[in-house]
């Protein structure tokens, strides 16, 4: 196994029997990467390759995305939640024989990671939450125009919500891979609803894992105030606000990447 080439995709089985695609690369202490809403695990390629030089890195596709089935009968289960998606993640850990992992979640992946840490604390050695929130219950107003741009057809405007323009221009293929959508409309609607209706604020006091919250000061899709509230509710959590960074700081910010790697090294599951 090499750090630059992940193993072929494997299959885990969700509680409802849905086959879930997952992949790993590298060796060592396990790290699980959870991506944002309706994005493919290929969007982690840069991060996974870097971390796989010293960790065993696992990734999984969300239901209905990039070749993973949406659910029984080919349909996303009614009322799908981020908590349900966290149960899918536990099935992936089981399939990989991973009892305990460090969990890194970006955007909706961070919301899923919150429930994993709350409901299965023995499985989470540490928690990194990137560009995410505890949900609308945190009281922070949502930037409606930013969400309109996210869902609209203007690719350039959407890219500006995530990435520094110079970085995006220099990494055009990586940006295309990140934004490639491979899911039907019912799946996209279900995942968007699961993310926007996420409500973990009252449960975050039960998170036992060491936690790092990393957020860009210029993130319009999840305001910095949401990250501040998130970190305040998780016992002992540390907040890193990255000046000038936007919603895709897990890819374009060297400061965020260094902080995450240092945190993972400090809390590696043995």
Description of the molecule:
The protein is α/β, with parallel strands linked by helices and 270 residues long. It has helices spanning 45-51, 82-95, 108-119, 144-151, 155-162, 165-170, 172-179, 185-196, 224-233, 249-252, 254-266, and strands at residues 10-13, 19-25, 30-34, 56-60, 101-106, 124-130, 211-216, 238-242. It has an eight-stranded mixed beta sheet, with helices on both faces. Helix 9 links the parallel strand 7 and strand 8. Helix 2 crosses helix 3. The chain is globular and about 40 Å long. The two termini are 20 Å apart. The relative contact order is 0.16.
List the helices and strands and how they pair.
Blueprint: E1 10-13, E2 19-25, E3 30-34, H1 45-51, E4 56-60, H2 82-95, E5 101-106, H3 108-119, E6 124-130, H4 144-151, H5 155-162, H6 165-170, H7 172-179, H8 185-196, E7 211-216, H9 224-233, E8 238-242, H10 249-252, H11 254-266
Parallel strand pairs: 3-4, 3-5, 5-6, 6-7, 7-8
Antiparallel strand pairs: 1-2, 2-4
Look at the helices and sheets and give the structural class: alpha/beta
User: What letter string, H or E per element, gives the SSE order?
Assistant: EEEHEHEHEHHHHHEHEHH
- Terminal CA distance: 20 Å
- The count of β-strands is 8
Overall geometric form: globular
Compact overview of the structure:
The protein is α/β, with parallel strands linked by helices.
Supply the key terms:
globular; 270 residues; single chain; alpha/beta; eight-stranded mixed sheet
């Amino acid at each position: 196994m090499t750090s630059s080439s992940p193993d072929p995709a494997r299959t885990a089985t969700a509680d409802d029997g849905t086959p879930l695609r997952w992949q790993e690369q590298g060796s060592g202490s396990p790290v699980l990467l959870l991506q944002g809403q309706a994005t493919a695990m290929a969007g982690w390629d840069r991060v996974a390759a870097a971390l796989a030089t010293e960790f065993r890195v696992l990734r999984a596709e969300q239901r209905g995305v990039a070749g993973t089935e949406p659910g029984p009968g080919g349909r996303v289960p009614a009322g799908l939640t981020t908590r349900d998606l966290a149960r899918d993640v536990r099935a992936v850990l089981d399939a990989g024989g991973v009892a305990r992992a460090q969990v890194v979640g970006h955007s909706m992946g961070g919301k899923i990671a919150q429930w994993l840490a709350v409901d299965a604390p023995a499985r989470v050695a540490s928690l990194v939450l990137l560009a995410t929130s505890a949900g609308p219950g945190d009281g922070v107003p949502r930037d409606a125009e930013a969400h309109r741009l996210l869902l609209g057809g203007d690719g350039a405007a959407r890219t500006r919500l995530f990435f520094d323009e110079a970085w995006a221009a220099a990494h055009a293929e990586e940006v295309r891979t990140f934004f490639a959508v491979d899911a039907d409309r019912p799946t996209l609607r279900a995942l968007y609803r699961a993310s926007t209706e996420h409500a973990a604020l009252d449960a975050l006091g039960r998170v036992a894992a060491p936690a790092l919250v990393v957020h860009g000061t210029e993130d319009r899709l999840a305001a910095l105030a949401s990250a501040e509230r998130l970190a305040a509710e998780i016992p002992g959590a540390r907040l890193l606000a990255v000046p000038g960074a936007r919603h895709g700081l897990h890819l374009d910010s060297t400061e965020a990447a260094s902080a995450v790697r240092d945190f993972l090294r400090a809390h590696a599951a043995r």
